[in-house]
Sequence to fold (294 residues):
Amino acid sequence: MTTITEDELVASFEAQFELHRGRSDYFYSDCGGRLSLDWQNVYEKLLDCFDPSQREQLENQVNSLFSQPGTHRIMDQGCGHAMSLNETTLRFAREHPNQHFEGYGLSTSIEDIWIGSKAEFNSLTSEEFDLLEKHGIRALKLLTAPENTAFFGIEKDLHTALRNFPYNLDLVFSDNTYFHLVVPWMAAKHTAERLTRGGIALFRTIFQNRIIDTSTEPILEAELVKHLQDNNPGYEILTSSPRYGRLVLAIIKQKDSPFITNQHIGWKHNDSGRYLKTVYSEHLQKGMIAIDDF
Fold:
């Protein structure tokens, strides 16, 4: 492993994102909705991967949170055409009509978010204009949306999108996105810390990026989850049943505290060149960037 600079790490994020910008195939092509026979809502799809008792716990937690007065924010990280985001946000808005719900779709192609249309500059409220100017969050106008809902699109790299996100989030879900990320656990850390207390994040394919220890031995999924839970008493961490395919990770935020990964990024070299590698260690690794400090 060799030294990496912060500029090199950020450049790798930007290069990966630009490679896929404007292409909805980078994320789950959430197309068709209920009109398509093989379509499945991503949020429901991820819940289906958990054992019945775990699913009941997650659903009860979400319903309890959404029953509280105020504005509730839902994000699909890699929303494709955003059919799942649309359906999920509208569902909870109907079930809790006295609360306000906002849906945020993060994608490499805002043009492929099939929720209303991008709001014209002259129709933006002052808050919506600030969101666009400061954070790249674009208001989407859906004429048929209930009054207690609002939708927004974000065309931005997920590694950094949550670092300066202006709000806390109540529910976050992601299907295939984390498989494509350069440093998926950095994105997961920022997401977990952005959750409201009681909020839930669901990630699939996050375990596809193999992590090694300081002896270069791979860390198994169960071992990594145990490390994460031991290091993060302010969060509850669940994993789906392996009989349902790729593991889905659920993070429930129980109190405001940093999400500790103890992961470090550096360059690894082979005959073809160099690539980024993630090392788990409870101690600072010389020449590497600690995810928890980035």
About this structure: The longest helix spans residues 6-20. The chain has one domain: 6-293. The radius of gyration is 19 Å.
